[in-house]
């Protein structure tokens, strides 16, 4: 798979990745998919923490689980792995020598944690003034909470997302995946590309300070500004929307559907489908502000009407009428859809440890017309490319690679 041509827009960009878990690795996987050469640094012997975050694990040729978890596979393709112990003088020196030759360094240690190894921004910027150095942490490099560890659920809780998620009378609920980590990784990739543009124009590198909590707060989006404008704390509404009605999940006679009415004309057409055109003329429901004010009364009426209809029959009628809606797919159903196949959102990637010879991964959603995303490397085994990387970057072999 490493023979796949690298046609991506970031071909030639070199990144030293000292991050682990999800936010940093997800960021560098995005950049690697777009062509960057990402050198993943891992602890000798154990590697990225997420390698052990299973089951499930890749099944080996002996029929037993390997040390390659699905969690690790989800954020580490297209990278090379070097097992280097930064806690040793030889390891730290090797990383400084690599950092002198790359475009980007990314790390997610506690603020100040890399200074003792001489791998902090101030030290590396003296070696490589053009370096873009991205630090990801829980609460940022400054502020009263900067010393605290950063975990996705803590960011969702501190940043307000959990207070908005869940049933109105239930407990606060986190999003089903590590969305604070993922979004932080996306913000980080965007910031890195912007800093590289500045570097290419000015010759000047810089330090990027990005925090899980800050990014979580930034994507409170309309709910955050709803509060700032009104002074009223947003409430958990389950699947309902704070500003649009009806925009939620409804139960049908044989399952659930999503109804996402975005304007008054769509609401009128939805009422026609339910054989209650009069509801769209009712002053309580005719406009979206009126529907918000009378949400409970309207949802009670609609819920009773929708429950009489079959799921597929209702969705077909909505599509014909131009009323936005859709199914609530399970994860298996998602990957069986024709849309996933058409958009290449499920991949089969060769893997040297897999009994089947390959692992299935989720595709990159970006589609370039001229510089396509490529899948050149399987998620590497721990230290798979150590010797190769040391020969490539070091003037002499300053440490003995460890398994």
Morphology? elongated
Name the CATH architecture of the largest domain: 3-Layer(aba) Sandwich
Question: How large is the count of helical segments?
Answer: 17
Radius of gyration: 25 Å
Question: Residue share in helices?
Answer: 25-40%
Tell me the name of the CATH homologous superfamily of the largest domain: Crotonobetainyl-coa:carnitine coa-transferase, domain 1
Low-confidence segments, given as residue ranges, are none
Category from helices, strands and their pairing: alpha/beta
Cα distance, first to last residue?
23 Å
What is the CATH top level name of the largest domain?
Alpha Beta
Strand content: 15-25%
Mean pLDDT: 95
Into how many domains do the coordinates divide?
Answer: 2
CATH topology of the largest domain: Rossmann fold
Question: Numbering strands along the chain, what is their spatial order in the largest sheet?
Answer: 5-2-1-6-7-8
Order of helices and strands: EHEEEHEHEHEHHHEHHEEHHHHHEHHEEH
Major sheet attributes: 6 strands, parallel
Find the count of extended strands (DSSP E, 2+ residues): 13
